[in-house]
Write a structure and sequence with these properties.
By secondary structure, the protein is mostly beta strands. The chain has a domain of 54 residues. It contains one helix and three strands; from the N terminus they run H-E-E-E. It has a three-stranded antiparallel sheet. A hairpin with a 5-residue loop joins strand 1 and strand 2. The longest helix has 4 residues. The two termini are 24 Å apart.
Length: 81
């Protein structure tokens, strides 16, 4: 879970962009800078646009938690957009 202390600096999004809807696999290219959550175990990472998501061996799931897929939960303004 992402935490914050000052909600006045946060903005909401309508969620219509593909990067909010898609999930990404290990080693895919990061579409936008932000905080991503693993849909299987809820572990979070920060990633910058153009980098690769961590490889499959970045972390392991207990049996039954599914494959590692990353989903954007907080977009950051590292891209200047």
């Amino acid at each position: 879970m992402a935490w914050y202390i000052d909600k006045s600096i946060l903005q909401t999004s309508d969620g219509n962009k593909d990067w909010w809807k898609k999930t990404y696999s290990p080693a895919d290219e990061v579409p936008v800078s932000g905080i991503y959550i693993c849909t299987g175990c809820k572990r979070e990472i920060t990633s910058n646009k153009g980098d690769k998501f961590p490889p499959q061996n970045h972390h392991q799931h207990p049996t039954g938690n599914g494959s590692i897929k990353w989903k954007l939960i907080v977009r950051t303004n590292m891209d200047g957009q």
